Amino acid sequence: MSSASFQNRLDDIQKRLEKENILHDSDRRGREGSTPNHGPRRPRNFTTNPSDSVRSSSAPSPSRPRDFTLPTNVLDGPSRKRTLHLEPGTGRTRHGEGSRSYSRHHDSAEIDRKYEEIMKQSGILTIDGKKVQTEINDLDNLGELGHGTCGQVNKMRHRHTKHIMAVKQMRRSGNQEENKRIIMDLDVVLKSHDCPYIVQCIGTFITNSEVWICMEIMATCYDKLLKRSGQPIPECILGKTAIAVVKALNYLKDSHGVIHRDVKPSNILLDEKGTVKLCDFGISGRLVDSKAKTRSAGCAAYMAPERIDPPDPTKPDYDIRADVWSLGISLVELATGEFPYRDCKTDFEVLTKVLEEEPPVLPQNEGFSQEFQSFVKECLTKDYKKRPKYRKLLEHPFIKKYTDQHVNVAAWYAEYLQRSSPMRVS
């Protein structure tokens, strides 16, 4: 492709992003105008001191590039950050007003139906294998853990059993896209109770204004690990991490026909036993004939080339291999301690580099095994048609090597805590 032609493609992407930003802000203003001011009954200590909060990938770090998401104007540099919307929705431009209204009404009815179905289990928590009827006021807030795609996550304690859990709190609103995300997150976690590589849901609370998803507590996410230590994650740990993530993604695809669409270090969690699990399914999507065909969101920094610049922007058409790319970028960042697309002043510069430059690779002179280098190279194959899917990745020598090799992830994490205890997350 000539330089002039490539620049034209970038200009087209810029115009699409700006249009999506305008539409998003319009949705946001409408949501803020319709969101009720009152919340559900909740514990008195529901809010926490912002100074005590630890945010995950939304906070800049002096030791590595910030976790990019598109600002309101992609070319104005780092300003107010928000989620990236890339693929235009078919309901916005391809059909008439009547068709769009029908689609929105149908979607709204489907959302209400799913809420009603899930509400039947609202207030029932599974604690130590037992069903416990619980009021929302029975949970004591112990502080903020981080943020998900559509809500904050707090550490909470069940007052009667003393059980500790992570609770994602999301506000219901008149915004259809956000309600879809909440339903998607609920749907995936409730159905994934049989997967050991996905964070387990122990119950929900649904009121007229909020949705709480109660989940098993995990120790940290990989984004925080990197920020807190300032050091790369060892290959052997990333070997076990890659196994868990690929198996989780493969489970979502095979068992539920779902693509995650937001694979990144802040959505990969670790507990004190050394167990690695995937979380945050708010922007996951349904696969139709193994393809994702809907407008979606995600973090620009980890987004695959085919999602940034689809052949036909009006018909988003990508598959699970977009998540394989995101895994590859995450592994390079975690293994080297640095985000691979450095020295970018705006998120649009990151997107340009993803499209224009050769894919990142692991340095050959830093002790990484040939298996690891090969695995990352395959994940970051720019032509998605040549990029491997999950089943092929599970047969890769890197995955087989660390499937067979004993790695004490729990001991490594305990040692990491001892080394980093004097340090504080910024």
TrEMBL record:
<dbReference type="GO" id="GO:0006915">
    <property type="term" value="P:apoptotic process"/>
</dbReference>
<dbReference type="GO" id="GO:0004713">
    <property type="term" value="F:protein tyrosine kinase activity"/>
</dbReference>
<keyword id="KW-0460">Magnesium</keyword>
<dbReference type="GO" id="GO:0004674">
    <property type="term" value="F:protein serine/threonine kinase activity"/>
</dbReference>
<feature type="compositionally biased region" description="Basic and acidic residues">
    <location>
        <begin position="9"/>
        <end position="32"/>
    </location>
</feature>
<keyword id="KW-0723">Serine/threonine-protein kinase</keyword>
<dbReference type="GO" id="GO:0004708">
    <property type="term" value="F:MAP kinase kinase activity"/>
</dbReference>
<keyword id="KW-0808">Transferase</keyword>
<dbReference type="InterPro" id="IPR000719">
    <property type="entry name" value="Prot_kinase_dom"/>
</dbReference>
<keyword id="KW-0175">Coiled coil</keyword>
<keyword id="KW-0963">Cytoplasm</keyword>
<feature type="domain" description="Protein kinase">
    <location>
        <begin position="139"/>
        <end position="399"/>
    </location>
</feature>
<dbReference type="GO" id="GO:0006950">
    <property type="term" value="P:response to stress"/>
</dbReference>
<keyword id="KW-0597">Phosphoprotein</keyword>
<protein>
    <recommendedName>
        <fullName>Dual specificity mitogen-activated protein kinase kinase 7</fullName>
        <ecNumber>2.7.12.2</ecNumber>
    </recommendedName>
</protein>
<keyword id="KW-0067">ATP-binding</keyword>
<dbReference type="Pfam" id="PF00069">
    <property type="entry name" value="Pkinase"/>
</dbReference>
<keyword id="KW-0547">Nucleotide-binding</keyword>
<dbReference type="InterPro" id="IPR008271">
    <property type="entry name" value="Ser/Thr_kinase_AS"/>
</dbReference>
<keyword id="KW-0346">Stress response</keyword>
<comment type="similarity">
    <text>Belongs to the protein kinase superfamily. STE Ser/Thr protein kinase family. MAP kinase kinase subfamily.</text>
</comment>
<keyword id="KW-0053">Apoptosis</keyword>
<keyword id="KW-0539">Nucleus</keyword>
<dbReference type="InterPro" id="IPR011009">
    <property type="entry name" value="Kinase-like_dom_sf"/>
</dbReference>
<dbReference type="GO" id="GO:0005524">
    <property type="term" value="F:ATP binding"/>
</dbReference>
<feature type="compositionally biased region" description="Low complexity">
    <location>
        <begin position="50"/>
        <end position="61"/>
    </location>
</feature>
<feature type="region of interest" description="Disordered">
    <location>
        <begin position="1"/>
        <end position="108"/>
    </location>
</feature>
<dbReference type="GO" id="GO:0000287">
    <property type="term" value="F:magnesium ion binding"/>
</dbReference>
<feature type="compositionally biased region" description="Basic and acidic residues">
    <location>
        <begin position="94"/>
        <end position="108"/>
    </location>
</feature>
<dbReference type="GO" id="GO:0005634">
    <property type="term" value="C:nucleus"/>
</dbReference>
<keyword id="KW-0829">Tyrosine-protein kinase</keyword>
<dbReference type="GO" id="GO:0043408">
    <property type="term" value="P:regulation of MAPK cascade"/>
</dbReference>
<dbReference type="GO" id="GO:1902533">
    <property type="term" value="P:positive regulation of intracellular signal transduction"/>
</dbReference>
<keyword id="KW-0479">Metal-binding</keyword>
<dbReference type="GO" id="GO:0005737">
    <property type="term" value="C:cytoplasm"/>
</dbReference>
<keyword id="KW-0007">Acetylation</keyword>
<keyword id="KW-0418">Kinase</keyword>
<dbReference type="InterPro" id="IPR052468">
    <property type="entry name" value="Dual_spec_MAPK_kinase"/>
</dbReference>
